[in-house]
């Protein structure tokens, strides 16, 4: 490489700033058109119009400065924001609930050399216990020295994951049982929508694939909606402050989505919508939260709290119960096991069905084929459904290329022969794209290679923020993630030992009857149908960057003339 051109010069990252890099330019209001010969004195000229107020969520949707806008959005959802709300005078009138992902617990377990269950207790001690953040104070310019109140409850997102897996399987089974052309059904294949990074990618760059996205909410969004609607109904959703502790920065983007607010399920009011999850912090930021208050996470008691805030009745107590038993089988992956659960449900409901696993080009791609074997009567093998797993952006790009509709040629062909050839090629390409798309019934998609345990917000093997006590024997990030994976799977082994002698209920730990009973009670308590509680929607993000816009020549000339110096 040339000495002039180095790798350092190839960084196009835009330093985050609250000020938009594409500010709205405002011009003085045009003079009244009643009298074209009227002269307006300079001191009486119309005042500059007030710039339009754009929320950060709307700013993110413009795609003009994706890096900067996302960086600002991420920075505004931080541990400092959580502490500021905990120390605010209005905090005594609110309930604070934390949602902790199993991937976060696995990462912290490897970091501090403890079990996944012990880390769960340590998180509870930090957020709710008498030796945690309740002992600290926070100084601010507005409120001075304020005592930090603790959280009221720490919930496991495995509770909502059980709900998500059950309805993900129901969504696919309904799609497979619906005859072609009958009603409006989800386009095949159905793509998992639990990864906000993948959802944002499709919305901004691949809108043609948005109809393939599952409309089911992620476990974080489901649990956030449940907490907002059940735990504080008398004061409304603003009376509960929900914090998600997740392995991924993209979960912050999910929390900021306009579709995941009280406007989606609550009554129409003049008040601003309230987010289902108010703030999302990552695994590393949880450690930063403790360190900012001079608390050592590693010294927190490794035992459960004597008591947490009790639920008021049986329906609410379902939120604080243990979640599903995590899968100990490594084939389930570390992103919740959507694919393996759906396959298990499909085999359970299809007599005589068998499973064939076909490995892909790398460890992050695999196909699952559910089929009926050839019969003794000479019937051929019947493929019931083909499903796949696709992790990592490189594999996602390959998937998108296979699913995207074929492009038509812009320039016309000359002559009848050339036109006929072009028509045949277009028809063949469209047919090939359609056959590839219909080949799969379901694809579990995650943006991070290796799944959610390798999320961008997890502790790294050489991370200085935590100085992992057990990282001396780990030489690289790949080995570190493998250890985090083991901690994730070991959580299932620990839970199985303490439950019914290791007997797992339902299908892969998901008990459909219990899920249906909870959702029915949830609907009855809130008066909101499950379609609003459990499902959401997506939108195409319009990007006008680089597009030619029609310009009124006369208006443009008048605009230039009004600028200093006449504009010419």
From TrEMBL:
Residues 148-456 form the Iron hydrogenase large subunit C-terminal domain. SUPFAM superfamilies: Fe-only hydrogenase. Coiled coil: none annotated. It comes from the Eukaryota. The keyword ATP-binding does not apply. One of its GO terms (molecular function) is 4 iron, 4 sulfur cluster binding. Transmembrane segments: none annotated. Keywords: 4Fe-4S, Iron, Iron-sulfur, Metal-binding. Component of the cytosolic Fe/S protein assembly machinery. Required for maturation of extramitochondrial Fe/S proteins. May play a role in the transfer of pre-assembled Fe/S clusters to target apoproteins. Belongs to the NARF family. PANTHER family: NITRATE, FORMATE, IRON DEHYDROGENASE (PTHR11615). This is Nuclear architecture-related protein 1. The lineage of its organism: Eukaryota, Fungi, Dikarya, Ascomycota, Pezizomycotina.
């Amino acid at each position: 490489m040339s000495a002039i051109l180095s790798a350092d010069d190839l960084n196009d990252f835009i330093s985050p700033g609250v000020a938009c890099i594409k500010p709205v330019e405002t011009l003085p209001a045009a003079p009244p058109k009643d009298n074209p010969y009227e002269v307006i004195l300079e001191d009486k000229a119309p005042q500059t119009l007030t710039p339009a107020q754009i929320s950060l969520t709307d700013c993110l949707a413009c795609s003009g400065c994706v890096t900067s806008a996302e960086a600002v959005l991420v920075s505004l959802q931080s541990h400092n924001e959580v502490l500021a709300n905990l120390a605010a005078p209005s905090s005594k009138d609110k309930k604070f609930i934390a949602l902790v992902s199993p991937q976060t617990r696995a990462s912290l377990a490897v970091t501090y050399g403890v079990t996944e269950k012990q880390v769960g207790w340590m998180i509870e001690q930090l957020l709710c216990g008498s030796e945690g953040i309740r002992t600290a104070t926070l100084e601010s310019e507005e409120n001075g020295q304020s005592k930090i109140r603790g959280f009221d409850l720490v919930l496991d997102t495995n509770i909502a994951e059980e709900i998500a897996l059950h309805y993900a399987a129901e969504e696919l089974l309904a799609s497979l049982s619906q005859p072609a052309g009958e009603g409006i059904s989800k386009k095949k294949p159905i793509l998992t929508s639990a990864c906000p990074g993948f959802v944002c990618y499709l919305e901004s760059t691949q809108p043609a694939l948005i109809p393939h996205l599952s409309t089911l909410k992620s476990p974080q969004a489901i649990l956030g909606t449940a907490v907002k609607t059940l735990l504080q109904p008398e004061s409304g959703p603003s009376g509960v402050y929900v914090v998600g502790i997740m392995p991924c920065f993209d979960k912050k983007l999910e929390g900021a989505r306009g579709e995941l607010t009280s406007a989606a399920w609550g009554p129409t009011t003049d008040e601003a919508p309230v987010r289902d999850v108010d703030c999302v912090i990552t695994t590393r930021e949880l450690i930063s939260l403790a360190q900012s208050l001079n608390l050592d996470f590693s010294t927190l008691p490794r035992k459960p709290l004597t008591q947490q805030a009790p639920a008021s009745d049986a329906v609410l107590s379902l939120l604080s119960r243990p979640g599903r038993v995590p899968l100990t089988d490594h084939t389930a992956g570390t992103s919740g096991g959507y694919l393996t659960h759906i396959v298990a449900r499909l085999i359970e409901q299809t007599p005589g069905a068998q499973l064939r696993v076909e490995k892909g080009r790398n460890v992050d791609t695999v196909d699952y084929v559910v089929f009926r074997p050839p019969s003794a009567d000479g019937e051929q093998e019947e493929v019931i459904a083909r499903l796949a797993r696709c992790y990592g952006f490189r594999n996602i790009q390959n998937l998108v290329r296979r699913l995207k509709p074929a492009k038509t040629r812009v320039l016309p062909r000359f002559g009848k022969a050339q036109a006929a050839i072009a028509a045949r090629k277009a028809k063949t390409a469209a047919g090939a794209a359609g056959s590839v798309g219909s080949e799969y019934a379901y694809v579990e998609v995650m943006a991070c290679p290796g799944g959610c345990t390798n999320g961008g917000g997890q502790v790294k093997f050489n991370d200085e923020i935590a100085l992992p006590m057990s990282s001396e024997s780990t030489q690289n990030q790949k080995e570190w993630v493998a250890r985090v994976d083991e901690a994730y799977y070991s959580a299932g082994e620990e839970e199985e030992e303490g439950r019914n002698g290791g007997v797992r209920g339902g299908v892969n730990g998901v008990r459909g009857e219990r899920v249906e009973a909870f959702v029915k009670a949830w609907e009855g308590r809130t008066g909101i149908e499950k379609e609003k509680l459990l499902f959401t929607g997506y939108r195409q993000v319009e990007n006008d960057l680089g597009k030619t816009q029609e310009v009124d020549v006369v208006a443009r000339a008048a605009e230039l003339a009004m600028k200093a110096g006449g504009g010419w």
